[in-house]
């Protein structure tokens, strides 16, 4: 950690260009979703076996869950990732126990209640939401298989004590979840919409909330 | 549109667009030029001020978001107990090289000490990682924060 902060001037001694280099992966994306459509629940009707259908539905929903807009803030460590390539957050952030960053450098130091456009930069906007924060450590997704994520999502000891009904509501109504489809200029959105995503979660629950292997 | 800004205890009525970053209103409209423009994308920390007692990057905060809230800039941070200790430690350690980033460094260091009076090295690094110094004064910044903390 100590080495890391002092390494910053070494790799970014030309600070401005260094920052840009660190964000080299940033590309221009339209604000609206370019992630394509999600399959609708009816698309899974031909799968006769209920368990297999449930697993297939979650697999489809995982296209959202594992999208960078969602999984960047469900990291394996307490440090968020960012960008389409999920590189470490710049500046290096540790969300600490609060999930809001260390006292003195909390998320809202930079992230507002809404996306903030910026001009004159390859980065087109600073993402923001009133509840901007990292997911709790128990909800880390990066590095897990879809099946492992699935089992974690419905495990009340790791999911914030949410029932399956709570999960449907959370995925469908929470506005930090919904931010993913309105990520601000310069970021891609996950496929589908919050509504179609929630419909898949609803169908997954009603088919037994089965998890892929 | 007009906005009421409370900067360093003084009220200013400014007639600006609401989406103008607070930084430019502080510098160009009010004339407080101690707060510096660095990267313009909240990546370097040079523009750090306190709004409602919390550090923010003024280069990306719309002025409308800061209206009506107490704002403290480098010009008045020395009037707080932590700020005064930080500034004295900065002088004692002779932290500054070129100085351009130091307004932001001092604002972040003061916020750190206000929230965490006895920070460890890791605590200091975690918070100060958001403030870049091209001169590489990081060792002196950390020493000065420790000195300021010890001077409670």
UniProtKB/TrEMBL annotation, chain B:
Pfam families linked: Fer2, Fer2_2
Xref: Gene3D superfamilies: 3.10.20.30, [2Fe-2S]-binding domain
Entry GO MF terms: 2 iron, 2 sulfur cluster binding; metal ion binding; oxidoreductase activity
Start and end residues of each 2Fe-2S ferredoxin-type domain: 1-77
Cross-referenced InterPro entries: 2Fe-2S-bd, 2Fe-2S-bd_dom_sf, 2Fe-2S_ferredoxin-like_sf, 2Fe-2S_ferredoxin-type, 2Fe2S_fd_BS, Beta-grasp_dom_sf, Diverse_Oxidoreductases
Membrane-spanning segments: none
Record's keyword terms, sorted: 2Fe-2S, Iron, Iron-sulfur, Metal-binding, Oxidoreductase
Name of the molecule in the record: 2Fe-2S iron-sulfur cluster binding domain-containing protein
Organism: Rhizobium fredii (Sinorhizobium fredii)
Species classification: Bacteria, Pseudomonadati, Pseudomonadota, Alphaproteobacteria, Hyphomicrobiales
């Amino acid at each position: 950690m100590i080495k890391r902060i002092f390494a910053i001037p070494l790799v970014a001694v030309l600070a401005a260009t260094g920052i840009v280099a660190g964000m080299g992966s940033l590309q221009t994306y339209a604000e609206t979703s370019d992630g394509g459509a999600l399959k609708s629940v009816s698309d899974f009707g031909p799968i006769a076996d209920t368990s297999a259908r449930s697993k297939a539905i979650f697999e489809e929903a995982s296209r959202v869950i594992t999208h960078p807009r969602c999984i960047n803030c469900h990291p394996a460590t307490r440090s968020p990732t960012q960008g389409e390539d999920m590189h470490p957050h710049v500046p290096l952030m540790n969300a600490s126990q609060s999930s809001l960053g260390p006292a003195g450098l909390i998320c809202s130091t930079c992230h507002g209640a809404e996306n903030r456009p910026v001009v004159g930069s390859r980065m087109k906007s600073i993402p923001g939401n009133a509840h901007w924060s990292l997911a709790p450590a128990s909800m880390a997704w990066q590095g897990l298989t879809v099946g492992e994520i699935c089992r974690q999502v419905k495990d009340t000891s790791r999911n914030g004590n949410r029932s399956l009904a709570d999960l449907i509501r959370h995925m469908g109504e929470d506005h930090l979840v919904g931010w993913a489809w309105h990520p601000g200029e310069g970021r891609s959105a996950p496929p589908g919409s919050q509504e179609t995503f929630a419909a898949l979660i609803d169908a997954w629950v009603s088919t037994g909330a089965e998890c892929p292997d | 549109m007009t906005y009421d800004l409370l900067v360093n205890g003084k009220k200013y009525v400014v007639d600006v667009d609401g989406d103008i970053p607070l930084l430019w209103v502080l510098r160009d409209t009010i004339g407080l030029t101690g707060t510096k423009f660095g990267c313009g994308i909240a990546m370097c920390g040079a523009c750090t001020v306190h709004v409602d007692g919390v550090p923010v990057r003024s280069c990306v905060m719309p002025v409308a978001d800061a209206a009506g809230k107490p704002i403290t800039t480098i010009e008045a941070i020395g009037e707080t107990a932590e700020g005064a200790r930080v500034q004295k430690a900065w002088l004692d350690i002779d932290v500054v090289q070129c100085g351009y980033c130091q307004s932001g460094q001092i604002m972040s260091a003061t916020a750190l000490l206000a929230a965490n009076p006895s920070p460890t090295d890791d605590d200091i690094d975690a918070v100060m990682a958001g403030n870049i110094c091209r001169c590489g004064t990081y060792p002196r910044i950390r020493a000065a924060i420790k000195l300021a903390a010890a001077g409670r």
